[in-house]
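Quick one:
INPUT:
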């Protein structure tokens, strides 16, 4: 992924036929790009921290390159806004943040299963998630050889049926972990399976309540031991739905980026989307009625038309399933996309806005004047989810921080 930094166009020297010339690197906004407002991320973190209160910690989930926004930029902005720690999915994501100079606690939410990975986690001061005694023993052996403590979190499966130990195994497992002298269990957590669906149906949490009850029973069975642990359960939906789900910490992903986990969610929280996807018009052409456009000629002009070719496609993360369904905004005016979305290009019908010229910028996602196109708009048209849309923007789209 290209570096998330303010636009800084470097200059390089090249020799042609014995003559040396200085060439400026291309503007990252020359074709298509993702634009991220770091101050909005910071403010969203501040809003969320104020919402959960001082007695609860805020973990900013920055996995998948910060949901496509750029992990380093998001992490730094979220911490400035009041986040206490960071959550990542993989060892490599954690190392990336350490290389960026971040010193806060970083929890790896995925399972690390071999000694090499866990050793790297130890060396980089990352907290691994364990689901069983096997990984705990490996962590203990690593720390014993280094004469230091290895901090870990234990995950419990309360109904996600994915990672985590069974609820009825927790007490015995923690007793075995406590017997290991070189590891220190710092946290215990679980993950909500359908909190967003329960929130959408405006029910009394349904299956989420079952998970909460299971988690609370696990903690009760631990007696006084659970009070020494950081207990966390809530994702964005859980955080927004009920303060009883907050425990000691919440793990917020989607809402940190300015989106609510369900449509039409009523909230006083002033969260704002931090991301825009933009692209430039590379060619404007006029065609007659009945002309096929793009691969397969799935679209044919119904009138004499003016078309704008835009340099972005499914290789950049705009799903081909959206072909002929989306619109983009230019100067606050929506123009429809027509024909099949190709790997690198798509076409817009600008007949009703004929003043568009080559080089002008279209906003595919985000706010442009009074127009706002959200990931949910795309989801409604393609059967996807906002998380997938945001994480789908590919490496060759530069990230530009504003």
């Amino acid at each position: 992924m290209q570096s998330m930094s303010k636009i800084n166009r470097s200059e390089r020297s090249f020799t042609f036929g014995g003559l040396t010339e200085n060439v400026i690197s291309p503007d990252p906004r020359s074709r298509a790009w993702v634009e991220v407002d770091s101050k909005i991320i910071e403010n969203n973190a501040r809003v969320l921290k104020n919402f959960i209160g001082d007695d609860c910690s805020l973990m900013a989930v920055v996995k998948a390159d910060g949901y496509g926004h750029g992990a380093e930029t998001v992490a730094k902005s979220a911490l400035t806004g009041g986040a206490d720690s960071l959550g990542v999915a993989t060892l490599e994501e954690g190392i990336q943040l350490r290389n960026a100079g971040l010193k806060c606690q970083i929890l790896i939410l995925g399972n690390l299963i071999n000694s090499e990975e866990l050793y790297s986690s130890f060396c980089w001061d990352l907290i691994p998630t364990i689901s069983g005694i096997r990984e705990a023993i490996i962590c203990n052996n690593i720390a014993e050889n280094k004469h230091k403590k290895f901090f870990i979190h234990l995950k419990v499966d309360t109904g996600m049926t994915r990672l985590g130990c069974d609820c009825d195994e927790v007490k015995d497992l923690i007793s075995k972990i406590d017997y290991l002298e070189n590891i220190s269990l710092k946290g215990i957590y679980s993950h909500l399976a359908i909190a967003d669906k329960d929130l959408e149906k405006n029910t009394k949490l349904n299956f989420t309540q079952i998970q909460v009850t299971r988690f609370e029973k696990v903690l009760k069975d631990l007696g006084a031991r659970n009070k020494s642990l950081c207990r966390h359960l809530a994702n964005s939906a859980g955080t927004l739905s009920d303060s009883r789900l907050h425990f000691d910490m919440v793990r917020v992903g989607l809402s940190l980026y300015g989106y609510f986990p369900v449509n039409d969610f009523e909230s006083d929280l002033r969260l704002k989307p931090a991301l825009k996807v933009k692209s430039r018009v590379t060619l404007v052409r006029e065609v007659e009625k009945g002309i096929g456009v793009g691969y397969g000629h799935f679209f044919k002009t119904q009138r004499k038309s003016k078309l704008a070719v835009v340099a972005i496609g499914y290789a950049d993360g705009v799903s081909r399933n959206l072909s002929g369904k989306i619109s983009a905004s230019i100067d606050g005016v929506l123009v429809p996309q027509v024909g099949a979305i190709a790997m690198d290009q798509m076409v817009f019908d600008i007949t009703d806005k004929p003043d568009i010229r080559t080089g002008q910028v279209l906003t595919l996602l985000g706010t442009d004047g009074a127009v706002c196109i959200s990931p949910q708009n795309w989801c409604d048209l393609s059967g996807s989810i906002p998380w997938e849309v945001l994480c789908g923007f590919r490496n060759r789209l530069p990230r530009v921080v504003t």
